[in-house]
Amino acid sequence: MIIKTKKExxxxxITAETSYKNRREFLKxxxxxxxxxxxxxxxxxxxxxxxxxxxxxxxxxxxxxxKPDWLAQKxxxxxxxxxxxxxxxxxxxxxxxxxxxYNNFFEYGTSKDDPSRYARNFQVEPWSVEITGEVNKPGIYxxxxxxxxxxxxxxxYRHRCVEAWSMVIPWVGFPLGDLISRFEPTGNANxxxxxxxxxxxxFPDQNxxxxxxxxxxxxxxxxxxxxNPLTLIGVGVYNDVLPAQNGAPLRLIVPWKYGIKGxxxxxxxxxxxxxxxxxxxxxxxxxxxxxxxVNPEVSHPRWSQATERRLPAGLFDRRIETQMFNGYAxxxxxxxxxxxxxVNH
Length: 345
Ligand code: MTE
Prior knowledge:
Layout: H1 17-29, H2 31-34, H3 47-51, H4 59-62, H5 69-76, H6 96-101, H7 114-118, E1 128-133, E2 139-142, H8 143-147, E3 153-160, E4 165-175, H9 176-183, E5 191-196, E6 218-222, H10 223-227, E7 232-237, E8 240-241, E9 251-253, E10 266-272, H11 279-283, E11 307-310, E12 319-321, H12 329-332
Parallel strand pairs: 1-10, 4-11
Antiparallel strand pairs: 1-2, 3-4, 4-7, 5-6, 5-10, 7-8, 7-9, 11-12
Ligand MTE is lined by residues 103-107, 161, 196, 217, 246, 259-260, 262-265.
């Protein structure tokens, strides 16, 4: 069971859920936001700004990806997370600053602050996603084609990295299953494979001789995992578009799996009969399985997964117990009935 840590956090460091939601309501009524002008520049997106002062911040300071008007308008009409249920949690949100400056995005480098440092001026237009493999409607779809038919919704999810740190993040997105249905997978589509953009100019570590990843970054899901209602295409965080360092313009969010699965800046979705290879599994299958489900009972070969450091935190404080399937067992345990989760880790 998770140990709640709300009272240990100085109020200046956190955004109370109610405060964020009140501001979210305000944003929904704001004509400026509906027009896509100034959500970032007004400072309304910074949780610490709301808790302290609403100091203006520019999109550049927040390191947001560029935002076409149609996307800003869709973002402004996203539905709020419900007050309770599987798609939300009442645990304290991780501040925007931590969500957007403590990142894993190895295309930018291996330090946690490399992505926010090097992801400046990332453009999301033009952007397209190629749909290939076992589907009746393959093709190259523009970002607008991909996103426009979907209603965006807020989901407040726990986000647990294999490195044993975790956050609570108000994502904006829509169910991956809804996107998949549009392409009409054939009966042979047992798996879905995802790939990140290759771009040596924008992703400096794709040029590095020391990089361990064979680019592009790749991930995969079994089709029933992909269709599970918890699985999201993420397009935003804290009520605005994803900053580049968080995977603009679209990424995968699978909250019962370690964050590795949450592939960023997706440009290809491929439907396959056989299990696809995944970047970290290729590097070390012993350490990173295909499934990579959050499981406190299966240690990583080099560290325990029984507990996690809930951010923001120092090295030795705010350690909480890790939950089976990251607390989403009621929604997903049936997907693995009869499987040995030590073998299929
Ligand atoms: N996607 C790409 N393309 N490259 C990466 O290095 N890192 C993964 C995942 N998606 C990664 C990626 C890992 S290890 C984690 S924990 C999450 O992104 C981190 O997401 P966040 O930075 O938004 O917290």
